[in-house]
Amino acid sequence: MTDLSAFPIARRWPAQHPDRLQLYSFPTPNGVKVSIMLEETGLPYEAHTVNIGKDESWTPEFLALNPNGKIPAILDPDGPGGAPLGLFESGAILIYLAEKTGKFLPADPAGRYEAIQWVMFQMGGIGPMFGQLGFFHKFAGKDYEDKRPRDRYAKESARLLRVLEDRLDGRDWIMGADYTIADIATLGWVRNLVGFYGAGPLVGYDELTHVPAWLERGLARPAVQRGLEIPARP
């Protein structure tokens, strides 16, 4: 039996199956990247709901694993060399899981780095910009009389979508014929932008062709459908 007692996070969210990879997350666009990846790979795991609405990611136990206080995070009892490994940052986790399973990341070095660059495009651009637009359009920021912040993020989000639109011209997936962690990283954010955030009109989403078709293909995948609901909301 694997012993995870040395990790404070495992004491707050006890593992029923300590031999499986432990996921600490919430079904946000960042959180579902990892649950989708785990569903796609078939790697055995156990999901724990970290209720960010109750600031559970800022508890001492969670911060012991991720000092940045953000979901998702994982604890793999079978890390490199067989030792347990804790890991945070969704992009790093996607790369780790791809390399651990040999799935959804090109094997050739050039293709590998090309896919990783598109993961970084999501991490550094799409995620932060779409998230800020969501705040200023849907949440507390929507009540600000000054609409310049919202419009700034809407303009940049629209630009990023068109970068993705151009990339997908003639491609089913970001890397071409193969579905990779670049798609897994990005699908939830585009879905949220036009769905939960309701910002499609602000960014001219209906003017696009390739991004909506790509999103539809992605959302049709059974593993994506499952992963979008993991972990369950309280």
What does this molecule look like?
The protein has 2 domains: 96 residues, Glutaredoxin (3-Layer(aba) Sandwich); 113 residues, Glutathione S-transferase Yfyf (Class Pi), Chain A, domain 2 (Up-down Bundle), CATH 1.20.1050.10. Strands 2-1-3-4 form a 4-stranded mixed beta sheet, with helices on one face. α2 packs parallel to α4. The longest helix is centred in the middle third of the chain and has 29 residues. It has 10 helices and 4 strands. With 234 residues, it is an alpha+beta fold. β3 and β4 form a beta hairpin. This is Glutathione S-transferase N-terminal domain-containing protein. Pfam families: GST_C, GST_N_2. It comes from Ancylobacter koreensis.
Keywords for this structure?
single chain; 234 residues; alpha+beta; Glutaredoxin; Glutathione S-transferase Yfyf (Class Pi), Chain A, domain 2; four-stranded mixed sheet; 10 helices; 49% helix; Glutathione-S-Trfase_C_sf; Glutathione_S-Trfase_N; Thioredoxin-like_sf
